[in-house]
Amino acid sequence: MSKTPLHFTLNGRAFDLEVEPRRTLIDVIRDDCGFTGTHAGCEHGVCGACTIIVNGETVRSCLMFGFQAEGATIRTVESLSQGGPLHPLQEAFVEHHALQCGFCTPGFLMLAVGLLEENPDMDEAAMRDALSSNLCRCTGYENILKAVKDGAQRMKASHD
Amino acid sequence: MKPAPFTLHRPATLAQATALLHDLADEDARLIAGGQSLAPMMAFRLARPGHLIDLNGVGELAHLCESGGMIEIGALIRHVDIARRAIPGVTGALLRAVLPHIAHHPIRTRGTFCGSLAHADPASEWCLTAATLDATLVAHSASGRREIAARDYFEGAMATALRADEVLSSVRLPQLPEGARFAFHEFSRRSGDFAIAAALVIFELRDGLIAQARIGIGGAEDRPRRISEAEAVLNGRKPSPELFVEAGAAVAAALCPMEDISTSAAYRRELAATLTERALEEAAR
Q1: Boundary residue ending a domain (A59, A79, A99)
Q2: Same domain membership, residue A96 and residue A50
Q3: What is the pTM of this model?
């Protein structure tokens, strides 16, 4: 199968790849780049587990083809903490028990980080609406909401 | 859940895109802009295009402008742009009111307004908006440009008047007059899910009486459309809860709703009537 060149920056690292056009961005990130923090759930855009940030926008990485990320700046859950202290939102997730099995967590984290960076003053109604985007099969939604509310305050404090 | 192989094409101009479509129309070429409906269909292999023509490099399709009382939305305008680009007037406010009902934010950052119309899902909020506002759809092909009225455009569920060699390059929406009132209501089982039914109502008040009523219903039939019988009930009359119930009943009587495994036609009919009443009440406030 013919391949197409693909260049992007993922979590601060430049990648220079050749990929089959049919491969989705999540598969490129996981298989070609080796960043397996992003989870492939439903692979048709319903569960949100694969949510990442591309050029500052939250997207479902199963609904983008890799070739569509040409020249992009991409952030996945690995960008939040690279062995150092946890990101304020990750700390809030730990403290509020916002994860059980953890499968949905990278998607929820990147969704919330992307939305809070765009609008640090989201109210609870907006958060509930935004978080309805992603599925948690352990049904930990109340704790996820608590963590995002607290994480929003922590993110603001860390910028002061 | 992996898309089948295809040959990728990346035109830089609309002329290149239409030339590719002309040459590849018989080989199941598909256009992609946002891809938020096409990518899942390809993941399920419900769609197996031999060629994918990526419009994202065609800069001339990224326009959003107002001229001559029309708002023109180019094929690369994404759902989130509708809120970010400060579209003026009542039509701008209407678009911003409908926007949050479309899927979820991470879908809205990629999906496009014109892509929704090209896909033509019966439950699409933008398809309902285009039908209710009597939008004009602009299609380009290698042989030229043509305009299609919304009432002639929707031919059924995911079926439109677009030919295989045509690009839906933009959609033109009329600017509603200052003072026009509107409301949008839809019902779905889960936040962001497909609407089981949706109602978009628009009217003006002249000397306390309803004028220029538009009642659009989506999600209930195989395509969105205006319900002229309900509009006729409203025009020239004073807004009241009783009148809105009458208009809702006219909607129910006029519809021939779809049925599926979880939703009967009778339920959709009642739902459309209720959503119409609620939207009329909100618009009248």
Answers
A1: A79
A2: no
A3: 0.96
